[in-house]
Amino acid sequence: MILTAFHETARIDRQLYGRAGRQGDPGSSQAITALDDELYRHFATRAAKTLASSAREFPVLDGPAEWLRKWAQRAAERRHAATRRQTELSEERLKESLAFAGRDG
Questions:
Q1: What is the pTM of this model?
Q2: What does residue 4 show for φ and ψ, rounded to 5 degrees?
Q3: Which CATH number does 2-100 carry?
């Protein structure tokens, strides 16, 4: 299985890697991505540009590329968690407003 773009959550990538095998055969997987992929554009723009500019002189090694992927995925997960918390707070405020007005929501 070849992964051509990382997802915003590492869990989805791990699930895809796990599905590379069949019936007891572990299979194999490989990730081939670009530093201008959506994950990096949205969650690690500066770091990806820095790594890309150094790639003109040196090949991008697995270590820095792995660090960038993990960093971008954690940033995406933090943003999604903050959005979920904000939604929960908004729902709670709406419930309180409706209860105060005499309408249970």
A1: 0.73
A2: -105, -5
A3: 3.40.50.300
